[in-house]
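Make up an example, fold above all:
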Amino acid sequence: MIASRLHRARRTLRQRLLFFLLTPLSVLLCLSLVADYQIALEPAQAAFDHALEDDAVALAARVQASGGQINVELPEVAETILRSDSADQEFLSAFGPDGRLLAGDADLLPDGLDAAHQLRLSDAMLRGQRIRKASYRLETPSGPVTVTVAETTHKRESTASRILAAMILPNLLQILASLLLVYVGVRTGLMPLIHLGEDISRRASTDLSPLPRNEVPLEAEPLVNAMDRLMADLRDSASAQQAFLANAAHQLRTPLAGLQTQLELAVQELPPEHRARMERLCGATTRLGHLAHQLLSFARSSAEANIAHEFQPVDLARLVEEDVTHWVDEARRRHIDLGFEVAPARVRGSPWLLRELLANLLDNALKYNPPGGRVTVRCGPGETGPFLVVEDDGPGIPPAQRARVFERFYRPADSTGEGAGLGLAIVKEVVERHGAGVAIETPPGAAGTLLRITFPPCPAGPSRPLAPSSATLSAVAPGALPGGAGDAPSGNSSGPI
């Protein structure tokens, strides 16, 4: 019972409409075929009956009564004519008033007739065969005489078969054409709903705009209105979540920044024997601020929060130029050569999320690269779409761990850098939101890590012209490395900015 209900519940609207339309239509068409058959068969059967009645009347005309005697004047030639038929076997009989057989077949019994000149047609069985017979009663001076003429039903059945065969094909074609027209009509009628479903399926998960109503039938408007209200509620919820996260980020960042400033000032005022402990506390505060920022960034980049972001064409080259410069001081502090190589490239996405993506990639690359290392950011058009690459010559990520580094809070066991394991998790969230792909590779002919992000192609549109360029933003000067190292390779061709 439950399985049957579930099966009925899973029927599509098209199946329901077709079932409730085609079932009665099929029954009506079949009944129409039967009615047409009967209507076409009736004239043919009537013609055979009229011929049988004529034979009965002709046989009655052969009855003679004289001198109290009743005879049937039926020469052999006349009887042969009455009995002649290429398809059926013919029978005839004549019975007198006392039930005496006057002529013909004794086993062909007449129907009981009450009035003179009464004619009756009926079906019967004779000698194991179905027959159709006509009985006629006439009055003579010597009493009533009943004559009967009968024939088997072979030609009647043959005629019925021919009529049925002639009607089946046209009626079958009519049935099939009707069913096809109903199916096409139902499908055409449901096309607005199909188009609506396809439009919803093509939408990005971040698109919560109202549904189009050009082709929506009146019957489906309540459903569309309900979906629009649901999307509006989701937009409001996402906006409220974004506002909360932005406020939380501001409220956390301000006191942490103040605390860090106070600790840095306190370090300078403390005697040397207490300064080391305060410096550790200051470092812990810095890490706490960074962790809080990453947690909030991860929450804002998640699927639930990101639905409020409006995607738009973004000049990836300009974004790289502007954002990489913000990391110059950090790169110099860590004695790392930071540069970029850009070519014109556009992607469709959220500028804020793309900046978070690049910031986390640079933070990871600088954090895990030893002093004297090199970090290069590249972007440009690719064969399958625009790309963004961050390459470093650090220790690299073993192939066995490359899939896991995108998990939240995962850090390789031999990791020496600082961090909570959220940077690449944020990168993965942003990449998925943009429908892009991310891969970790080994730089050709060198050690380190090459993280490549490939974006979907972006439709052409107006943008600021940008020629391919490359720059070294921070370079390690000779002798700047700890331990008196010599010249550090920059890996970037142009001079420092």
Q: What stands out?
A: The chain has three domains: 13-159, 228-309, 310-497. Confidence is low (pLDDT under 50) at residues 1-9, 462-467, 475-497. The longest helix spans residues 154-202. The longest strand covers residues 129-140.
